[in-house]
Amino acid sequence: MKKTRILLISPPETLHQWFVKHNIYFPLGLMMLASMVRDISEVKIINCMLTNNPPTKQGDLTRVGMSDKEIEKQIKKFKPDIVGISVTFFPLIGGAKAISKICKKINKNIVFVFGGAYTSIRYEKFLLEKNCEYCVVGEGEETFREFVEKYNS
Predict the structure, then answer these.
(1) What is the 3-state secondary structure (H, E, C) of 1-40?
(2) Side by side, which strands form the sheet with 41-47?
(3) Residue 23 binned pLDDT confidence (cut-offs 50, 70, 90)
(4) What is the pLDDT of residue 10?
(5) 49 vs 38: CA distance, rounded Å
């Protein structure tokens, strides 16, 4: 039986001009999610902050991290069934929305899920604006595993 292919993504940051600098950190939440589903799926994690791209200006905003083109290439290469996008704080929203559009452009059957602290307080807005199909609210490890098990059945 074919294992479900899950791509977990920590998106690029979009910062206002008054932010002095950005941070690169390990996507610990995504690593914990991956550990919970690795026995029932094939999992890959992409940290979009790990790139050689210089920050790009977008009006009064600055985007830091992988370009949409690089992200699209990674998604096409892995061919995921489910894409989980971590939205732990405000600067990740722009990147998360861009990734969800890329997913639908590549394959309308990709199921995409938002999770993380910011998602937990803004899930209604994300769902109403159709930025994602599902939101994991609160601690996601067990919930995400249940989600994948239901997807597999």
Answers:
(1) CCCEEEEEEECCEEEECCCCCCCCCCCHHHHHHHHHHCCC
(2) 41-47, 4-10, 82-86, 111-115, 134-135
(3) low
(4) 94
(5) 23
